[in-house]
Amino acid sequence: MTTLRLVLLARRVPMLLLLVVAVTGVSYAFYRTAINVDLGVNPFARPHKIPTPELIAVVTGVLASAILRPRCWEWERLGGIRVRLLAVVLAATAIALPVLPALVGKHTMPAGVDLWWILPNTLTMGGFTLLLSALLGPPLGGAVSIAGYFALALTDNLFPNVEPYLPLAMYPAQHGKWVPALCLVPTALAVHFVTRGLSSWAYRLERNSGT
Amino acid sequence: MIRPSRWPLGSLPLLLPAISITLAVFSQTLEMFSWPYQVWARTSQQFVSEPLIFAVPLSAAAAAYAAGRLTGPDRITNLASSLRSGAPIAIRQLGLLGGVFTGSYVLGMVPLVVLTTLTAHAGGPGPLPVLTGLLSVFTATAVGYFAGVLATTAWVSPLILVLGFLAIQLNMASSGNFRAIVPVTYDGAGVGQTANLSVVGYRLAFLLLVTTATSLMASRALARSRRWKIPSWSTGGLIVLVLAMLLAPLGTDPRLAEAASEPPRTCRTEAGVRYCVHQAHQPELDELIAAAEPVYQAYGNVPTHGEQVWDSALLGGSRADSRPDGIVGVGIRVRTDMAGSKRSLQRQIAYGLAGSPACAVRFPERAQPDMARTVLESRHPADIATELSYWLAGRAEQTSGLRPRISDIPAFGTASKQEVRTWLAAHERRITECALDSRP
C-alpha cells in the first residue's frame, strides 16, 4: 500500500483531482458559451464554433499529461511490468478525466441540442495529447496538441467542405466521429506501456542533454 | 562567448504570440473591408469588440508562460537576494511583454484605421473605446504575468488561455451583467451617439486598478523567495478594492452610450418628403430616397405623419415611443448587399407610414405575432397596422423589381389598389392613433 501511495504522490494524482474539480466547476458555469472562430476570408463559410466545454477538456488533457508525467524516470526504467501497467493506467486516467468537464452541463442544454459528439472529440484529443506527451514530452506535446486543435478550427472555417475529412466533429454535428478516438486511444496506451510514460528522447530533450 | 541578455527566453515566446495576436485581430476586422465606406464610430467600437476576444486571452497566456519560465524562485534572473529583485524585474519584463502585445494589437488594427481615414465621411476616432481596447490588452498581460509569477510554472498558461476567453466573453455569457467592467459588449456608442463618460470612465479606472494591483503584487512576490504568503494590509486592501469595484456595478443596468447633442446631418427634400441622414451615412441618402419613393407611391400621397424620413442615428437611437411626431425613423446599416438594404429600408418606411410606432406606444406590452397568417386573421389595431405595412412594402417591392418576399403575403386579400387608397384617405387619423378597426 505504501508503495502505491508513494507512486500516486510522485505522479501528483491529488493535484490532478484538484484540477479536474476546478475545471469541471468552470465548465459547468460556462457550459452554454462558445468561441466564434471566423477569419472572414471566405464569405460563404459559417463561423466555426469552439464549445467552451470542449476547449476546457482539451486543456485539461494537456495539463493532466503534464501533472502525471513520470518524475522518477531513471528509477522507473528499472521497474518491470508493474511500472508499465501503472503508466498505462495513469495515461487512461488522463484521457478519461477530461470527459467530466466536457459533459458536465449536458443536461442543462435545450432538448434539441445533442452534444454526445463532444465525447469522441474529447477522447480523440486526449489520446492525441497523451500519445505526444509520451513521445515528445508534455511541453512540446501539449503545445502541438493545443495548436493543432486551433488549426483544425481554422481549417474548418477556411474550407467549407473539409468537415467530413477532419478527425473531430464540428458544431453543430449530428454524429460523433469514433474512428479516430478508437485508433488514437489504444495507440497512446500502447506507447505508454512501451515507454513507461516518457520516451528517452523526450527525457533527454527535457533535461537539455542532447541525444 | 558570453553576451549580455535582457531576455533569456529567446525571441520565440514573444514573437509567436505577437504574430498570432496581429493576425487574429486583423482577420476579425476583415469583414468591414468589404463595406463601400467606413464609419468612424464603428471603427472605434471595433477596438472593443471581436478583435479583443482573441487578443486578451492570447496576451494573458503568453505573459503567464513567460512569467512561469522566467520568475521561478530558483532562476538566476531574479534571486530574492539580488539587489534588483522585485519591482525593477517586474517593470522590465512586464513592460516588454505589455509593450509587444499591445503593439501587435495596434498593428492588427492599423489597416482598418487607415482605410477609415481614407473613406469615412464625417467625424474622427473615438478616443475612449480605442484607449479601452489598448488598456485591456495591457491589463490582460499584467494579469497573466501575475498568474505566472504566483504559479512559478509555465503550465498555468493553457489555463489562463481558457480563463481569458471566458472572462472577455462574460457579457455574452451573462446577458450583459458585466458591461461596466468587461470591455467587450455590443451596445457601445454607435453612429450619432457618444460614450457615456461615467460608465466608460469607470471601466477604464477598473482596468487601471487591476493593472496596478497585479503588477504591484507581482513585484512584491518577486522580492521574496516564497511566492505565496498571507497578504499584507496594503495588498489585502488592494484586493478588496478590486473586488469592490468588480461587484459594485452588478445588478445595475449601465448605459454605455448616450445620444449626441447635435449630430451633423445632410438633408434633402424630394417630392414633398424631407429626408435626413447622419453625415457619416451621407452616401446612403440617394439610396434612401430611391427606396422610399415606391412606398409613398403605394400610399398615394404624403400623409402628415410621414412628412419626414430621418436616419435613426439622428434620433439618438431613441426608441419608437420617444420619437418626435411626423418623423419616420429608419435604421441605416452600412453593408454591401444593395437589394437587402433596399428591402430593409422599404420595410421600415412602410412600418412608419402604417402607424406601427404609434401602436408600440399605445400597446407597449403587446408582442408582434411570429406568423404572418396570425396577423392577417387578427382584429387587433396593431395587427391591422402591420398588415398595412405588409401591403405598402409589398407594393414597393413590386415597383422596385425586387424578388418577391413580402409581396407574397396576401395582405388585404383581394382589395384593389384603389379601394385601399380610398380606405387610407378615410382612416388617416386612426392610423396616427393606432385605432384601426376595419380593413378595406
UniProtKB/TrEMBL annotation, chain A:
Membrane-traversing stretches: 12-30, 50-69, 81-103, 140-159
Keywords: Membrane, Transmembrane, Transmembrane helix
Organism superkingdom: Bacteria
Descriptive protein name: Uncharacterized protein
Organism: Actinopolyspora alba
Organism placement in taxonomy: Bacteria, Bacillati, Actinomycetota, Actinomycetes, Actinopolysporales
Automatic annotation (TrEMBL), chain B:
Record key words, sorted: Membrane, Transmembrane, Transmembrane helix
Transmembrane stretches, start-end: 51-68, 89-110, 130-152, 159-180, 200-218, 230-251
Protein's recorded name: Uncharacterized protein
UniProt source species: Actinopolyspora alba
Lineage, broadest ranks: Bacteria, Bacillati, Actinomycetota, Actinomycetes, Actinopolysporales
